[in-house]
Amino acid sequence: MGEGSCSDYTGIIPVLNEAETLPIVLTELVENGIPRDRVLIVDGNSSDGSREIAESRGFRVILQEGKGKAMAVKTGVENAGSECIVFMDGDYTYPARHIHDLLKQLENGYDLVIGSRVYLEKGSQSTLFKLGNKAFSLFFRVLFGVKLSDVLSGMYPARRKLLREVGFELTGFSVEAEIVAHAASTGFRVTEVPIGYRRRVGRKKLGVRHGFKIALNIVRLTWRYSPVFFILALGALMLIPGLYLDMFVLYRWLFYGVVHHVRALAGITLSGLGALWSILAVLTLYFKRFEIRVLRALRDLEKKVGSEAWQASRGNVAINRNSY
Ligand SMILES: Nc1nc2c(ncn2[C@@H]2O[C@H](COP(=O)(O)OP(=O)(O)OP(=O)(O)O)[C@@H](O)[C@H]2O)c(=O)[nH]1
Ligand SMILES: [Mg+2]
Fold first, then answer.
1. Glycosyltransferase 2-like domain: from which residue to which, for each copy (predicted)?
2. Residue closest by Cα to atom 16 of ligand 1
3. Ligand 1, atom 9: nearest CA belongs to which residue?
């Protein structure tokens, strides 16, 4: 692997009414060696003076298109001029000291590096959120075969090439999940690095409502990235009433000598179809993962050719055409 340095990067911070925390976030960035001109604040039309706070400290602020964090991320990607982009929230929950370590992994050939929130400050994450995050992680493991522990993290560097391919169609707080789903399902290299996470200052914006939205978005992502699996998995649900009927018929026959012909037929049909659908669903998963492996190999090859051609154009190495 290896695809060029990230010395030129943009730090994108989506901000909506973060006047309380933005000053310490910006100070922390500078203290950690992040130059002001590498940071792009994407404002969601804040009414608390967040925009003015950032501008008065010499940071570049742009107004997002549309509404919601996903659209803010999209606006940021469209306005970032660099190949490497790193995202961070403006609520002082993500320590800026991790930025350089995360970017290093991009330089090591990854396309997306998730800052996995492992070192949690007490009270920084609710149980509901942890459950939702676990559900997403399981979803990514089953569907795409990637082992990630914090797909909803708001601190992650990524290559612009990947981000430009994302549709940004999921509204709400699942923009990160959409980026990870696109990366994992189309052969981009994804990894994670453990980071710290602080308790939010001020009122938490995530609630039970967002929990439902996250669940709905898992369904939408499955439909989008693996529709055949989705249909077959739904069909596999026939196994539950089918097995119930089978057990009932068997029980009545064994203990009471009563034979339920119609229920037996229905039970066998449902459980048979359900079993068949389950097998087909597992097979589609297998083929999906195979497709991902092929795409990943192609992307790796593309990077290798690209970086060698780039080096050759600088006169450093000659392209060895026999090496593929
Ligand atoms: N531009 C823009 N930024 C947003 C919008 N919604 C949230 N943000 C910012 O996105 C970042 C993450 O939002 P949070 O509200 O902290 O979301 P969260 O971290 O998932 O939830 P909490 O647990 O409440 O912190 C923060 O910097 C917000 O200010 C929006 O609609 N537009
Ligand atoms: Mg937050």
1. 12-163
2. 91
3. 15
124 CA from centroid of ligand 2 (Å): 9
- Is residue 318 one of the residues assigned to a domain? no
Q: Which residue has the tokens 């130059």?
A: 35
The protein residue with its alpha carbon nearest to ligand 1, atom 2, reads: 44
Q: Is the CB of 76 under 6 A from ligand 1?
A: no
State both tokens at 30. 């500078």
Q: How many structural domains are present in the chain?
A: 2
As a whole number of angstroms, the distance between CA 319 and CA 311 comes to 9
Q: Give the tens place of pLDDT for each residue, 182-223.
A: 999 999 999 999 999 999 886 666 667 777 887 888 899 999
Domain range for 252 = 227-313
Whether 91 is in the pocket of ligand 1, judged by its Cβ within 6 Å, is: yes
Ligand with smallest separation from the Cα of 204: 1
Q: For the domain that residue 157 is a member of, what is the CATH number?
A: 3.90.550.10
- Segments in the chain forming alpha helices (H): 22-31, 50-56, 69-79, 99-107, 127-144, 160-165, 175-185, 208-225, 227-236, 239-256, 261-313
Q: What is the pLDDT of residue 324?
A: 38
* Mean pLDDT of all residues in 66-71: 94
CA distances from 188 to 162, 224, 313 (A): 8, 17, 25
Answer whether residue 265 is part of any domain.
yes
Is the distance from the beta carbon of residue 200 to the nearest atom of ligand 1 less than 6 Å? Answer: yes
- Ligand 1 neighbourhood includes 69 CB (under 6 angstroms): yes
How far, in Å, from the CA of 47 to the mean position of ligand 1?
14
The predicted pLDDT at position 204 comes to 66
Which residues does residue 9 pair with via DSSP β-bridges, in sequence order?
84
Same domain, 31 and 178: yes
Q: What is the pLDDT of residues 222-276, one digit of tens each?
A: 999 999 999 999 999 999 999 999 999 999 999 999 999 999 999 999 999 999 9
In the chain, % of residues over pLDDT 70: 93
